[in-house]
Amino acid sequence: QEGLIFYQDTLSHRFEDFLLTGGFPLAINLFYRSGHVSSWVYQLYLSWIEGDIGRAGKLERNLYQIMSRILAHQATPVSWLGLGREAGIASHATVQEYVEILEKMYVLQVVPFIDLSSHAVRYRKNRKIYFQDPLIFHCFSGKNNGIGDGFHTESRRFLNNPADKSKLVESVVGMHLKRYFGACYYWQGKQEIDFVTGRGNKFNFIEVKYREQVRFSDFKWLKTTLPKSAELLVITKHHLREESGIRMIPAPLFLVNPAQGIFTK
Q1: Strand duo 128-131 + 113-115: pairing
Q2: pLDDT in tens, 3-43
Q3: pLDDT surpassing 70 at residue 199
Q4: DSSP string, the chain
C-alpha cells in the first residue's frame, strides 16, 4: 500500500482518463494520441449493441426507452415495474429480459438486494443497475441527450459535474467488486450501503463517497445500523484514513489492488 501511495497522483490522473475513455483500447489509443475520442467511436459501439439487440429479436426503440430510465436511476434502487412504466413498456418482464440480455453483452450489471439478517439475496426487491464500462455509459448518455457529433465534449461536460461523476465512480467500483469477489449486492434500511460483498457469514461493507471532503462523522449511523463487529470501507476521492472501524481509501488506490490488506477474500 505504501508503494502505491507514492504513485497516487499518477494513478489519480489515469483514473480520470479512464472515467472518460473506459477500458476499450480503441478509445484509449485515440485519446492518448490526440486528446480526443472521435464521435464515430461512440457510434460504433452503439451500432454493435443495436445489432446484437436486433439479433436477439428485440427492438431498438425499446432498448433506448429502457436505457433512458436506467440512466435516470443511476446508483439508485429501482423495480422492473417502475422501469417499465417510465419507459412506456407494458410488461415488466420485457424490461427484465432486455436487461438480462444486456448483462450477457457486458453492457449492464444488476446488483440485487441482500437481507443481512438471513444472508439471503432478495431478487424480487428493487435492484441497482450499473453500466459495466464508462465508455458505454457515455455512449448511451450522449445518445439520450441528443448528441450526434459531440460525444467526447458531452462526456467531459458530464464529468465536470461532481454529483454525476460520483455516480459513475460508484458503477466502476461496483464492477470491480463484482469481478474480484464474483458477486456484490446492496443493502437498504434506514441507511443504504452501496455494496455488500463477501462469502458465508463474513461481509464487507463499502460506501462510495467520491467528493472533496469526507468526514468520519458522516457515518455516525454505522454502529447502530450494522453488526457490532462490522467495518466500513469508504471509497473516496483523496482521503486515506482509518478510525473506529471506518477505513477510507482513494478510488484509484483501491481499484489497483483491492487485496492490499483491506479485504480477506
Answers
A1: unpaired
A2: 567 677 888 999 999 999 999 999 999 999 999 999 999 99
A3: no
A4: -HHHHHTHHHHHHHHHHHHHHTT-HHHHHHHHHHS---HHHHHHHHHHHHHHHHHTT--HHHHHHHHHHHHHTTTS-B-HHHHHHHHT-S-HHHHHHHHHHHHHTTSEEEE-EEETTTTEEETTS-BEEEESSHHHHHHHHHHHTT-SS-HHHHHHHHHTSHHHHHHHHHHHHHHHHHHHHS--EEEESSSEEEEEEEETTEEEEEEEE-SS---GGGGTTHHHHS-TT--EEEEESS--EEETTEEEEEHHHHHH-TTTTT---
Q: Which residue has the cell 464508462?
A: 134
pLDDT interval class at 78 (50, 70, 90):
very high
| Nearest alpha carbon to residue 18 among 159, 182, 210 | 159
C-alpha cell at 190: 434506514
Q: Count Cβ atoms below 10 Å from residue 12 Cβ, excluding itself.
A: 16
Q: Is the pLDDT of residue 265 over 60?
A: no
| Listed range (41-55, 133-147, 210-224) with the worst mean pLDDT | 210-224
The mean predicted confidence, pLDDT, of the chain is 91
Give dist(CA 243, CA 193) in Å, integer. Answer: 18
Q: Count CA within 13 A, CB hemisphere, residue 156.
A: 7
54, 47 in Cβ contact below 8 A? no
